Amino acid sequence: MERRALFGGRLLPAVLVAPQLAITILFFLLPAWRAFSESVQATDAFGLNTTFVGLANFRALLDSPVYQAALLRTVAFCAAVTVLSMAGGLVLACFANRGIRGQSVYRVLLIWPYAIAPALASVIFVFLLQPQIGLLSNGLARLGIDFNYATNGNDAFGLIVLIAAWKQVSYNFIFYLAGLQSVPASVIEAATLDGARGFYRFRTVIWPLLAPTTFFLLVINTVYAAFDAFALIFALTGGGPGSSTTTLVVKVYRDGVINLDLGGSAAQSVILMALIVVLTTIQFRYTGKRAT
Amino acid sequence: MNRKPDYLAHAVLILGVLIFIFPIWVAFSGATQSAGAINRGDLSLIPRLSGLPVFINALGFGNTAKGGVPIWHMMMVSALMALGIALGKIAISSISAFAIAFFRFPFRMVAFWLIFITLMLPVEVRIIPTYSVMSDFHLINTFTGLTMPLIASATATLLFRQVFLAVPDELVEAAKLDGAGPMRFFFDILLPVSGANLAALFVILFVYGWNQYLWPLLVATNGRLDTIVLGIVQMITSDQLTPWNLVMAATILAIVPPVFVVVAMQRWFVAGLTETDK
C-alpha cells in the first residue's frame, strides 16, 4: 500500500531516517557482520593469530553431541512452553468471554503478569522453591517429594518450563480474548440454533475461526521460549545443573562470555540468526501481516 | 435478563487469578518477615504488619558484593533506562516512518528493509559481537551504551507506518492548502491523530525497557549502572547469605512500576498490542 498525497523534498526525509538507520547499522548490522566473519575464523589460544577455517566451526558444532543435545532440549522447551501457555491462555479467554459478571475485573487480574520481568519471575519462584527455605519445596518435602532444581536436572528443566509458561499465559490470554471477541455473534447464534453447544460448538465453529490467532501465537511463543526466555533461565540456573537447562541461547552466552570460545560462539549466533529469519518469514508470510 | 451465575466460569477464572497471584503474595508476605525466620524455613503466609517498613528500608539496601549501590539508585537507573528507551524509540521510529510513508526519496525501500531486518537480530543471538562493538565505541558502563542500542525498533516503525498509511489523503491535501509544511503537519496533525497508538506503544516499550536483563548484564559491569532487575538477580546468586526479606521487598518494588503502567493504561495497551504484534 502506498500513499498518493506526498510531501516534496529529499534532504528532509534523509535527515528523518538517519538516526534510526545509524543505530541499526552500528548496533545491529555491524555486530551481525562480525558474527558472520568470526564464524569462519579460528583464533589461537593466546588470541594472537586468526586463520580462515571456512565452515569448520559449523561442522564441529553440528557434530558435537553437546550441541545436538542443546538443540533437542531447546525444541522440547519451546514445545512444552508453547503448548502449556497457549492452552492456559485459551481456557481462561473462553471462560472470560462467556458474558459473566465482573468480566473487566477478571481481565485486569489476568493480564498484569505480562508486565513482570522474566528474570524477576525466576527470582520469585526461587523464593517459593529454594531447597532450604522455599515454602513449596518444604511442603513437597513433607509429602515425601524431594524437589531440588539446584541438583536435579529434570526438576530444573520442569521448573523453567513452568515459570516460562506461567509468565506467558497472560499474553496468550490477551490475544485469544481479542480473537474470541471478534467471532461474530450471528455465527454463534446460528450454530446454537442448529443445536451445537458447549465443547462441540467450540471445536467445530469457534476453534477454526481462531486458527489465524493460534498460528500467530505458535510463532510468537516459540520465539519467546527460544530467545526471550534467556533471562528467566539464566537467572534461575545459569544453564545448570550440568547442562540440563542449557538451551541454544544460554549456550551462546556460556561459550562466548564465560568460556571465551569466540569462533564457536559466533557460529552458534549465525545458526540462531538463520533460525529467527525462518520464524519471522513464516510469521509474515502466513499471518497476513505484510511488510510492504 | 435474570439467570443464574455461571459458577464454572467464575471458578476457572478465580483459579487462574490465584495461580498468578499466589507467588507474588508469598513474596510480599516474605518481605514483611524477619530474615532469620525465612532462613529457618518458618515462612508464614500472613504478612506481618510490623514488617511493612521493610519496603522503605529496602530502598537503602545494597549488594556489598557489587559496591553496595542502593536499591533506590537501581530503581532510578531502571526508570531512566525504560523512559529513555520508550521515548527514544517512539521519537526515532515515528520520524523514520513519517519519512518512509510521506516522501519519495532515493533508497527509500533500502532504508525500509534495513530497518525491517532488525526484527531478526535480537541481542540474544549476537551477544559477543555486539559487546565487542560496544567496547570499540567505549560504550561499556555508560548510560548511552545501556539505552541507545535498544532504541532502534522495527516493530515501532512498522506500526507507525501502518497508522500513517491509513491517514486519509484529504487530510494531507488540506494541510498543504493551508500552507503547512511537512514538520508542521507531523507535529500538529499526524501525532495527535496517532494518540492511542502512541499510548499503547509507550506501555509496551516501557515494560520492555524496564524488564531488560541480558543487555544490562553485558553493559553495566561496575555497579553504578545496575538496573533493579539485574541487581536483584545478583543478590540471590552471590555467595553471601541472602537477606530474603529485603530481596523480596525489592522484587515487589521492582514489579510495581511496569504492572502499574499496564493496568493504568490497559485499554490502550490491549488494543495496541493486538494490533502491533499482529
UniProtKB/TrEMBL annotation, chain B:
Domain of life: Bacteria
Subcellular location: Cell inner membrane; Cell membrane
Main location: membrane
Membrane topology label: Multi-pass membrane protein
Presence of keyword Endoplasmic reticulum: no
PROSITE patterns referenced in this protein's UniProt entry, alphabetically: ABC_TM1 (PS50928)
Primary role: Part of the ABC transporter complex UgpBAEC involved in sn-glycerol-3-phosphate (G3P) import. Probably responsible for the translocation of the substrate across the membrane.
Protein name per the record: sn-glycerol-3-phosphate transport system permease protein UgpE
Protein source organism: Acidiphilium multivorum (strain DSM 11245 / JCM 8867 / NBRC 100883 / AIU 301)
